[in-house]
């Protein structure tokens, strides 16, 4: 095979693959994905095994450090993270400046970017491995606090300070849902489903936001800036924003009388920009293994919480019809992870606009692992080429004569 990177000096040699449909941008030892067979593995472990058995913080350790932790390593990791969950009080002044209705993703990308400013030690050049690892733990810790702040703001409630005695997910749920500190009990069923959801989102090789993190980091931008850029990339409805878009679509179909056939017809109509949100994937052309796991988790949690959600019935009907329809079958369009995640978040009490923020919380270890790998591999700055299609030379005309 030709090693294209070796051809860099041969000016004029440019491969064109808009959207990088068939172009690899890096070598990576983190996540394996077989879109035809519907296989997803983190560091060699299937997503099914991890979602069934592991905690989110254990998976974060695996992604970032390459191996599953021992009991002691996990306890140390959890302990060190819990020491950094407090966010500088001055950040609150900045946070308070957001209007109460500002979109949670806009708040999140700004707050994570601002963490660099509040951690000037992270900006030093030539950080040691230990210093980088410390910043990673700080980011993991502070992200959960900041996400809970954003949720509290959406309600107009005061923030709840972290409790170091809790594990990562329990502490997050505590800061998010506790109203009075003393008597709040986090429900184990909810902790379990939250762990599962975050694990399913934790990494997905070179997707749009992860590639963004790597490319921004490749300029030697700091960790917080790189992750903040990834959060912005995730916001788009064709990527992480799809989980919000799915619920909005299902609500719309419900309010329109629940006629799923009508909406399927719209999705197939090439003159209609409407797409069935939560369907299709750039890489999975058989099924999304995460969707299988999440669908079951969704049924379980709704049953356990005794929730009868009409929107879920519409989702099931849409899936049933679409899976038989030649348009979707021929194009290999199956429900993806976001088709179900929103229904669970909703059942847990999160407002729709928070869904993509929760995706970001889950994806954080993956982004960090990819950023770290890119640094360790000493990858060159990412800088794609182009095929120029604009005008050739033109003569400048004075503004008064144009
Ligand atoms: N509804 C209707 N038609 C669709 C859909 C959909 N959801 N997705 C793809 N198609 C059609 C396209 O119109 C195209 O048809 P054509 O060949 O007749 O022109 C064909 O299927 C291929 O679609 P592309 O857009 O070329 O596929 P691509 O790989 O570029 O896009 C994407 C993948 C962005 C996920 C797309 O399927 C989509 O927009 N889905 C809806 C949004 C969504 O759910 N995004 C979440 C992705 S998962 C994640 O980020 C976690």
From TrEMBL:
<keyword id="KW-0808">Transferase</keyword>
<dbReference type="InterPro" id="IPR016142">
    <property type="entry name" value="Citrate_synth-like_lrg_a-sub"/>
</dbReference>
<dbReference type="GO" id="GO:0036440">
    <property type="term" value="F:citrate synthase activity"/>
</dbReference>
<dbReference type="InterPro" id="IPR036969">
    <property type="entry name" value="Citrate_synthase_sf"/>
</dbReference>
<protein>
    <recommendedName>
        <fullName>Citrate synthase</fullName>
    </recommendedName>
</protein>
<dbReference type="InterPro" id="IPR010953">
    <property type="entry name" value="Citrate_synthase_typ-I"/>
</dbReference>
<comment type="pathway">
    <text>Carbohydrate metabolism; tricarboxylic acid cycle; isocitrate from oxaloacetate: step 1/2.</text>
</comment>
<comment type="similarity">
    <text>Belongs to the citrate synthase family.</text>
</comment>
<dbReference type="InterPro" id="IPR016143">
    <property type="entry name" value="Citrate_synth-like_sm_a-sub"/>
</dbReference>
<dbReference type="InterPro" id="IPR019810">
    <property type="entry name" value="Citrate_synthase_AS"/>
</dbReference>
<dbReference type="InterPro" id="IPR002020">
    <property type="entry name" value="Citrate_synthase"/>
</dbReference>
<dbReference type="Pfam" id="PF00285">
    <property type="entry name" value="Citrate_synt"/>
</dbReference>
<keyword id="KW-0012">Acyltransferase</keyword>
<dbReference type="InterPro" id="IPR024176">
    <property type="entry name" value="Citrate_synthase_bac-typ"/>
</dbReference>
<keyword id="KW-0816">Tricarboxylic acid cycle</keyword>
């Amino acid at each position: 095979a030709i090693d294209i990177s070796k051809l860099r000096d041969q000016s004029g040699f440019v491969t064109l693959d808009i959207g990088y449909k068939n172009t690899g941008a890096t070598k990576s030892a983190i996540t394996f994905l077989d879109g035809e067979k519907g296989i997803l593995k983190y560091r060699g472990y299937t997503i099914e095994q991890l979602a069934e058995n592991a905690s989110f913080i254990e998976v974060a350790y695996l992604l970032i450090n390459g191996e599953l932790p021992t009991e002691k390593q996990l306890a140390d990791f959890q302990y060190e993270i819990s020491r950094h969950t407090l966010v500088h009080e001055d950040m609150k002044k900045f946070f308070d400046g957001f209007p109460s209705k500002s979109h949670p993703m806009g708040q999140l990308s700004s707050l994570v970017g601002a963490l660099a400013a509040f951690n000037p030690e992270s900006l030093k050049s030539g950080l040691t491995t230990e210093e980088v690892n410390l910043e990673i733990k700080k980011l993991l810790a502070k992200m959960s606090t900041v996400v809970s702040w954003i949720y509290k703001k959406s309600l107009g409630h005061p923030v709840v300070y972290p409790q170091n005695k809790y594990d990562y997910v329990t502490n997050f749920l505590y800061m998010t849902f506790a109203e009075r500190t003393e008597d709040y009990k986090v429900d184990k069923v909810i902790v379990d489903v939250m762990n599962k959801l975050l694990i399913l989102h934790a990494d997905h090789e070179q997707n749009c936001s992860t590639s963004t993190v790597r490319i921004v980091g490749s300029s030697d931008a700091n960790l917080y800036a790189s992750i903040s850029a990834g959060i912005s990339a995730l916001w788009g409805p064709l990527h992480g924003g799809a989980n919000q878009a799915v619920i909005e679509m299902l609500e719309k179909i419900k309010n329109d009388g629940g006629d799923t056939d009508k909406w399927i017809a719209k999705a197939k109509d090439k003159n209609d920009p409407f797409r069935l949100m939560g369907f299709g994937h750039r890489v999975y052309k058989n099924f999304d293994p995460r969707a299988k796991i999440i669908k079951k988790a969704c049924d379980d949690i709704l049953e356990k919480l005794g929730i009868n959600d009409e929107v879920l019935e519409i989702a099931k009907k849409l899936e049933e019809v679409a899976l038989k329809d030649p348009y979707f079958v021929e194009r290999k369009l199956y429900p993806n992870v976001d088709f179900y995640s929103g229904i669970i978040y909703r059942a847990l009490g999160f407002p729709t606009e928070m869904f993509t923020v929760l995706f970001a919380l889950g994806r954080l270890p993956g982004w960090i692992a990819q950023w770290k790998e890119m640094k360790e591999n000493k990858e060159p700055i990412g800088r794609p080429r182009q095929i120029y299609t604009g005008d050739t030379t033109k003569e400048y005309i004075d503004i008064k004569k144009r």
